[in-house]
Amino acid sequence: MFMQIVARTKYFSFVFWIFNIFFLLCNRIYEGYSFSVFGQHWAYLDNFRGTFRWHICFNFVALRMISFGYDYHWANQASRFDYEKHTQRCHICKSGKTCYQVLQERSVPNDKFSFSVYLSYLVYAPIYVTGPILSFNAFASQLNVPQNNFSPTDVAWYGVRWIFNFVLMELITHLFYYNAFAISGMWKHLSPMDVFIIGYGVLNFMWLKFFLIWRYFRLWSLICGIEVPENMPRCINNCYNLESFWKNWHASYNKWLVRYMYIPLGGSQRKLLNIWVIFTFVAIWHDLEWKLLSWAWLTCLFFVPEMVFKATANSFQAKSAFGHFVLRELNAVAGAVTITCLMVANLVGFVIGPSGINWLVSRFLRKDGLPVLAGMFVTFYVGTKLMFHIHEFKQGRH
């Protein structure tokens, strides 16, 4: 009720964000609160809280609360979504089906913004614990008309693929010890080549771990008849710039950030400023830790040269074969630099922490570390060029 009242005022965005971020921070600071605040005679209940921490899951609930508020706020305004233009370029909509973007952008009738629908959206079981993140419009529009993009056979094959990936994860866990070295801190006593292998292995392990978690819950949601966005649509080893990486890592969260933060903040017109606001929010949303803020701000720093390079490359028109060759090589070099920066940012944020940056830099700038650093760069350069060929092959097929 509070959000519906605020949504009708001109101060909606300011009040709405303050309200949600305030409770998000309080939940983390007080670690889900305790029964002792109601009196010492209730304190014994704090010993029976269990392992399921509701305030961690509330992070996703907060995103759904914001989605409901904004979708209700926009429901009676002129739509910014050009359905006809979208249909012309969307192969799903051309086939007579309804893609997720249409479900998300198309407002639902006012009777869908009821308390019962809102509550069912907040606690929808398949996506309650980890996501994927689903907008309110997309959820409410599928309550009476279940998704038709995936047949029962498609859903079954989706489940079979998940089982094969689960087996792969079991094999990796038992045969490779990337995480053991990273968590124990033993990587500090290894050679630069070993550190590189462990760091790259940890990132691939993290990718597969989240891949399994998110696809399990998406499978559950598809069985229930609700289509949610696919996270991890592209392998981590097939991303050569930061923008494509974030679009293809937590893809549903990226869609949410674009719709509810990036566009309201000004979109591409203020991109350089927006990324700092958005990644700071993402870090705080994950947890109140300095290493996550370090990860967010390092990522923003690495984003700046990529944005400058893209703007320069787009303004440069190669008029000869040699010009195309030079532009392609520069893109490959930029891709290699980006992958290296991406590895550093994620290792700082999720493995070594900000205190390990100086050690990492000094370790690779030694005499025995420089050849490894050069080998890393050449490997990523070759990998980036291979990604170019894969992308061109897929474009040719379409």
Q: How does this model look, in words?
A:
This protein is mainly alpha-helical. It has two domains: 2-141, no CATH class; 239-398, no CATH class. Helices cover 69% and strands 0% of the residues. The chain contains 19 helices and no strands. It has helices spanning 2-6, 12-29, 54-75, 83-89, 91-94, 100-105, 115-122, 125-128, 136-141, 152-175, 178-184, 192-224, 242-248, 251-262, 271-286, 290-315, 321-352, 357-364, 370-397. Helix 17 (321-352) crosses helix 19. The longest helix is centred in the middle third of the chain and has 33 residues, at 192-224. The termini are far apart. The model has no long low-confidence stretch (mean pLDDT 83). The chain crosses the membrane at residues 12-30, 121-143, 155-177, 197-217, 292-309, 330-352, 372-390. It is a multi-pass membrane protein. It is found in: Membrane.
